[in-house]
Amino acid sequence: MSNYYELEFIQEEIENLLNNDIKKLVIYLDNRQIEVYNELSQKINQYSLNHPQTQIALKLTDQVDGDAAVLSEIKADGTIMVLHGTVKRGEKHNHIMLNYDAVYEYHKQTESVFTMVLGDIKHSDPTICTTDPEKLPEEESYGTALLEGRYVKDFKKRKPKNETEYSFADIGVSLFESEVLALIQETIKKPGFQYLSFTKLPEKNLAVEKAEEPIIKQLLDTKRKVAGYSFSGKWFHFRRYKKRIIL
User: How far apart are CA 151 and CA 174, in angstroms?
Assistant: First the structure.
């Protein structure tokens, strides 16, 4: 995929976020994405002028892909939203985009410490990513949730085979309260810490010998309220994007 498409994808997400009631936006890019960083820096200045109510920052990071440790420098007392750039969510041309204000309201209504946005597996569609879907990288393994009402009862770090109950996939959007941020920051201080993810273990190609239990598993094991918000639009997981958009 070209840098142009990467930039287009990030801009689409940013513009959707800025159309919602966002107070602060921090965008992390893999430190190898210098070209995208340079082009996006120019766009950020214009976004800031057009949306003065939102603080916008763009940063490079050397954190391992999927590593929640990138949040170690975040300071927040309220609700935090994290978007992972490995998922294309919705279709801008059809005006079917994820409504982040609605996700936030749902999170508050359920009184959960953590809410994950879930997509119906039947709605996974690579054609929403590019006009040439044959050139897409191999589909990434993704976790799936078992829902009980509005809450997540169980979560599998890999898509299970022949388990029809697990029909909702993690599509890379999480909301959580400051106590979860505190859990993340406490975990990364452990001796020998290497890797911490929200929902999954590291990919096999990453040089990680020891990974902590994903945040979602730690929360479910301690009986914390974890909600699942169902997104009805199309979505698709892909490997190439190693960036995060963090609120």
Answer: 14
The DSSP H or E segment spanning 34 is helix 34-50
Residue 37, CA atoms < 13 Å, CB-side half-sphere: 16
Please report the domains of the chain, with CATH numbers, ordered by start residue: 3-246 (3.90.550.10)
Where does residue 95 rank: exposed (0-12), middle (13-18), buried (19+ CB within 10 A)?
A: exposed
Cα 197 to Cα 219: distance, rounded to the nearest angstrom: 13
Three-class DSSP category at 196: coil
What distance in Å separates the CA atoms of residue 109 and residue 85, rounded to the nearest whole number? 27
Please state, in angstroms and rounded to a whole number, the distance separating the CA atoms of residues 75 and 103.
Answer: 22
User: Which tens digits make up the pLDDT trace of 192-213?
Assistant: 888 888 887 666 556 666 778 8
Distance CA 245, CA 28 (A): 6
Q: 145 — phi, psi (to 5°)?
A: -115, 150
Q: Which helix (H) or strand (E) holds 137?
A: none
Predicted TM-score (pTM) of the model is 0.81
